[in-house]
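ugh ok fine here u go
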Amino acid sequence: MSKVSNAVSKKNKLGKFFKKLGITTAIATLSFSALTQAGDVEKEDLKFGFIKLTDMAPLAIAKEKGFFEEEGVFVELEAQANWKVLLDRVITGELDGAHMLAGQPLGATIGYGTEAHIITAFSMDLNGNGITVSNDVWAEMKKHIPHENGKPVHPIKADYLKPVIEKYKDEGKPFNMGMVFPVSTHNYELRYWLAAGGIHPGFYAPEKGDISGQLKADALLSVTPPPQMPSTLEAGTIFGYCVGEPWNQQAVFKGIGVPVITDYEIWKNNPEKVFGVSKDWADKYPNTHIAVVKSLIRAAQWLDANNNGNRPEAVKILSQPYYVGADYDVIANSMTGTFEYEKGDKREVPDFNVFFRHHATYPFYSDAVWYLTQMRRWGQIAETKPDNWYMDIAKKVYRPDIYRQAAKELIAEGKLKASDFPDFATEDGYRAPQSEFIDGVVYDGKQPNAYLEKLTIGLKANDKL
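structure:
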């Protein structure tokens, strides 16, 4: 397409978009002129992938509220079968980018699984996951959990699951649990919770050809796609799982399981999903990438605005079949600031889903380093690495420089305020040391090896399997 025909195409599409909003042709023409005078996007028609989870919300909102179009890009969103298919399609270029597990760009870049240089300039959310167990397992756990006013005291630690697993072991039965992908937040959160309760979740040994993640395990973790978690639990194939919403609340609504803990309680305000693109794509389409990040920042801000006042509208959008496709009430149970554990035990968790507060959208290097420490802890990284290796990989994959450019444009355009973002003049990409983990261990992203030494279960220093 020539530059002229490309411009005409863009003008026609913007004209249709503005017409839909009831904006006059004259205003539309002025808006188009302003857009074309700014850094033109190199590719305006884009296809992004996602998995049917509520934390894909920034993509759905950027599309449905017109933020993509206002930034000059026209986006098709397409649900993907699973995380591997999604990543492979970004690598081959069938997708321009995607809603990804935070560990996926890191795992791909260091060559764990499919090797490819994937980057992220946008963190999609904080928190949003939970751990659910079957009714039978819950009945056994409850015997060990302290109660107050007739209700279990939270947070519920894995200490109370340990005697249940030991009983299964004595009976010669494996204790199977589901998580969504080997480099998923869910895998690492489930492992963190289990290990904090003295339950070994197993090691990976890729150098020995063993990628099961079940070496020396007390609980056997395996991959189950998110929408299949409740049915797999109901079938008795697994006895518990870690997944994002709405699939924990679905278990409550179906009466087949009980969510026992949220990831907010395992690690307060932990990073969850990211928006990922290939490094080649980002290099080829820099203006397009900036436009996409600007759109997603605006969508995230909308999702958290007015003390979550827009969430009911967001839930209505997400409940549509081509997005998450779960019932409105199931999605609303967590998206609107509450979370239901045992049926009838609904509690206030205002930050269960965070999309913009607490600088949720900023791709901090320290978030990347934490994921890398967990890969090392469980054997996905087979050998010890110096601290600077962790930092170098973080800077290769997480791109706050691109985010900062997008944010500065939004500030200059009056769409957001400087106070909405970290202080770009002073911040260095690392969060202050974080202490709000369920085991009380402090994490400092600038000292990854010292952090690994503090963790009771897992590989350290020069350990090899």
